[in-house]
């Protein structure tokens, strides 16, 4: 019998009290992989040091997460690294922060005698870049998963350093997993296509499944007769919530009992609330902030339509979750979304940044008769049980066991 593969996973962050669902899509896959592999997660934590105020250093240190704990049965390590922000930017921008991150991981690996066969970095830059440097130092094969914004933003970032390190990470890795064919094509243009494969983030089937809409609304205190539109995601510019608010104004002119619920938080929240106020529809738009993940399936099942008006998107796991709950989707025709909404039986795709097209798509979705069984059966092709074996096969390939 073969021994279990030992995998070191590198993430930018892990769940916290402030953001309990951080990297949930990646962690679901990692937890499923842990049934077949011995996995260790490492996520370095930045410590901003003041040279003038030692008391402030102590306060900041106390606020950092614990150095080690477990998610399910998976050991998680949070080594500290100093960001050297007290050094002028022009002297530290090129290498010091990355060097300190890698040093903290090397020290952790040596001190705790962490053994592994493969390093798997989620997100190309910085986790993937750190992973490939570690792999070169330790002589281990490296896999990187590209999730979307790590490619969309960093390859076209004004700071050429981000672009260079993103390309270097892809070039030096042994294998790249892209969550969509669209991302793979972008990676192909940089010369790494031969080692890139497409594996979407999987859906936890036990969490997302059809429930009775009325029962869900009763539990969430949502009026039964309302037409509920639901957005789920970070409140950032790329998600296009401003376009959704403008479109919702037009929807309201046709549907009196329409309500828009926005789940998520982010830097654009205040501006979006002001936009809703300016349009005079603030009473019908509910910014719910981050909610407990256990309640997410309730909200999806309570909704009539899930809306994803992104300006760019890697694949959009929320779309799989919606379909699994037998809810249709109206989304922008961008990134990897058309690879999921492959026909009009699953949802409606519209031109990005076009509130008129988005409003028309929403109105059509509200009046269509959807084959709900078709929606949920389609989503079953993208569960963790279906996709994790493909990741395991990649592990075998880089270890020469295929």
Question: How would you summarize what this structure contains?
Answer:
The chain is an alpha/beta fold and 402 residues long. Helices cover 41% and strands 18% of the residues.
Number of helical segments with 4 or more residues: 16
CATH superfamily of the largest domain: Glycogen Phosphorylase B
Q: What's the number of domains? A: 2
CATH architecture of the largest domain: 3-Layer(aba) Sandwich
Helix content: 40-55%
Rough shape?
Answer: globular
Describe this structure as you would to a colleague:
By secondary structure, the protein is of the alpha/beta class. The protein is 41% helix and 18% strand. The protein folds into 2 domains: 213 residues, Glycogen Phosphorylase B (Rossmann fold), CATH 3.40.50; 170 residues, Glycogen Phosphorylase B (Rossmann fold, 3-Layer(aba) Sandwich), CATH 3.40.50.2000. It is built from 16 helices and 16 strands. Strands 4-5-2-1-7-8-9-10 form an 8-stranded mixed beta sheet, sandwiched between helices. The chain has a 6-stranded parallel beta sheet with strand order 13-12-11-14-15-16, with helices on both faces. A two-stranded parallel sheet has the order 3-6. Helix 13 links the parallel strand 14 and strand 15. The relative contact order is 0.11.
